[in-house]
Structures are given as C-alpha cells and as structure tokens.
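At this stage, I put together one protein's amino acid sequence and its backbone structure tokens, which the following lines show:
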Amino acid sequence: MYGEGLSTALAAHLLREYGATVLRPKSQYGGLPRAKLVRAVEYIQDQLDADLAVSGIAQAIGMSPFYFTRLFKESTGQSPHQYVVEARVRRAKELLTTGKFTIGEAAHQVGFVDQSHLTRHFKRVFGLPPKRLLESQKARDCARRF
C-alpha cells in the first residue's frame, strides 16, 4: 500500500509539473470587421444627443439589428445600449469639467432624459455623482489659485 500511494503521489506530481499544456488566449475570429466597428462608434459619437436605437446604428453600417448586436458585443464586450450609455456619461463628464454647463444642461446635451438619469449612470460609471465631481474640481481650482 505504501508503494502504491508513493507511486500515485509521484504520478500526480509529474503530471502537475510537466504534463500541463500551455493555454493560449483564444484567437478572436468573430466580431465586427474593424471598418464597421469604427463606423458604428463614429455614428454613436455623432448622434449622442439624439435618440439612438440599435436598429439605427445597424442600418448606418448596413447590417441587421440582431446580427449587429451580437457582433458588437463580441468586439467590445458591451451591448450597443451599454456602450451608448457609457459614451453619453463620458461626454457629460467632459462638458461638466469645462464649467460651462450645469448638470441638467449637460444631461440634455448628451441625450439623457433628465438630470437624475445622468446622475444614476454617472455614479455607476465613475463611482461618484456629478455634483461631487464638480465640487472636487472647484476645490482643486481654488487650491491652484493660491
């Protein structure tokens, strides 16, 4: 029994140390072709203030909505809707950091229904509400002046 246990332990050790195959990342064959992905992202960025629908984006690059949604998610890791919401939040942050817009104005500029809609998504993406971002930015601006 001792010899059997020892041989089993030796076999397990040899397999663990020398028998493992190196796992390589799976090459990506799917997803949108680069040109169509770039066109879709440019279309989204240009139309952020408008009512963006998956069907409109898909039509702009010449694909069916279902097929476009599937390939877009394969390419970006996000659904088109998630991508649009995050792009709107990032654009709103850019507008807010200029100091020329209130939170409500920035929300309407980027296509959110109202300020609370922007705030909810802003908090999810950046971890803090837009008001706190503005307050921290004002504090930094004041500190730089002195």
About this structure: The first helix runs from residue 2 to 18. Helices lie at 2-18, 34-46, 54-61, 65-76, 80-98, 103-109, 115-126, 130-145. Residues 58 and 67 are 9 Å apart (CA to CA). DSSP finds eight helices and no strands in the chain.
